[in-house]
Amino acid sequence: MEKVNQTFFLSHGSPTLSIDDTLEARQFFKSWSQKVLPQKPKSILVISAHWDTKYPSVNTVLRNSTIHDFYGFPDPMYKLKYEAPGAIELGKRVKELLMGEGGMKRVDEDTKRGLDHGAWVPLMLMYPEADIPVCELSVQSKQNGSYHYNMGKALAPLKDEGVLIIGSGSATHNLRKLDRSITNGVSVPWALEFDHWLRDSLLQGRYGDVNEWEVKAPNAKMAHPWPEHLYPLHVAMGAAGEDAKAEQIHTSWQLGTLSYSSYSFTSPL
User: Fold this and answer.
1) If we measure between CA atoms, which residue out of 119, 158, 142, 118 comes closest to residue 241?
2) Which InterPro entries does UniProt cross-reference here (predicted)?
């Protein structure tokens, strides 16, 4: 079994990523297997910003249904399906690691839930064949960055077991500040400043600062009024380890304030 030496944080942006060919990020996700990760993983664990629970939860299903958890978008988007196989064994392994290494007292299994758009929209572009088993893990928005980083640390052994660990969230996420008058690709100053701080902190290996982003980052509350879209990043960082090398693998903008900045974390061999 081939190890997966990298973890990833992907900014999944707007659900329109699923149909809008004008978005730069769409081309990035579609080029995944050619340009980012040619190796085909055994299974995929997605930590999604769109599943927020009191206790960590994994979905353990035979086949993933497609959850259209967005409102007021064009009709064709509600007909899209991504019915990848479930990864029940992986879900149980995640639970075992979180309750063992991670010291968590409780991890729930959801035997009905499919994939929300934080998982299926990017995966539909990255792995369109939908033939790789996928398990989702929730975030806990009442907790902090360090909690999610430690959750990631507990999941590190999965990389040696051929599992691709993806945190799916957004480098910036303030839906009240989206500006439809701004051309895609252009960003407003406060959002760009946060995005650059995040990039520089990650590329310089200042993971401790990123764990304390609320106090360290400029415009933290403006970029993330609620933290759930950043916490998948902390899980991906933790799973890669403190000696991992971060690289920005994509950046682009939509509606002025929505960053698609995405990162890989490569662990030393």
Assistant:
1) 158
2) Extradiol_dOase_DODA, Xdiol_dOase_suB
